[in-house]
Amino acid sequence: MDSFNSPRTKPLYRGTQAVWYVLGVLEAILIIRFLLKLLGANAGAGFTDFVYSLSGVFLSPFLSVFPSERIEGSVFEWPTILAMVVYWLVAWGIIKLFLIAKPVSTPEAAVKLEQQDQ
Questions:
Q1: Would you tell me which of 30, 46, 76, 114 could form a disulfide with 69, CB atoms 3.0–4.6 Å apart?
Q2: Does the reported pTM lie above 0.85?
Q3: In whole angstroms, how far apart are CA 11 and each of 4, 74, 100, 101?
Q4: Nearest by Cα to 59 from 88, 36, 26, 89
């Protein structure tokens, strides 16, 4: 049985799809927050408040890392950029862990090990 027809390949593929999907949704929420802050959106508006509340949970670990820059009602929120990068790196790491579990044939493994030695 080759590695492409292994019964473990499809669940690994679906797992990677799920991770990328969750990351996409999270990144979309964070970029919307970033743009709302940058454009000086009314924080009292329902949509703006919803986005700030939803993204605040994911942004809280990063809020005190860098200061946000304020210019005439606009806010350039560095912590949001940092959060987006960190969450992308975490998702990438999870995908790499999934791919470690991907079955490989002995000849495939030999070729990949040889490529790593170069």
A1: 76
A2: no
A3: 12, 45, 13, 11
A4: 26
Is residue 12 predicted with pLDDT exceeding 60? yes
- Which segments of 17-112 are extended strands (E)? 69-71, 74-76
Q: Which residue has the tokens 């919803």?
A: 50
For residues 12 and 99, is the Cβ–Cβ distance under 8 A?
yes
**Span 23-36, pLDDT tens digits:** 999 999 999 999 99
Bin 6: left if φ > 0, else alpha if -120 < ψ < 50, else beta: beta
91 closest CA partner among 10, 6, 26: 26
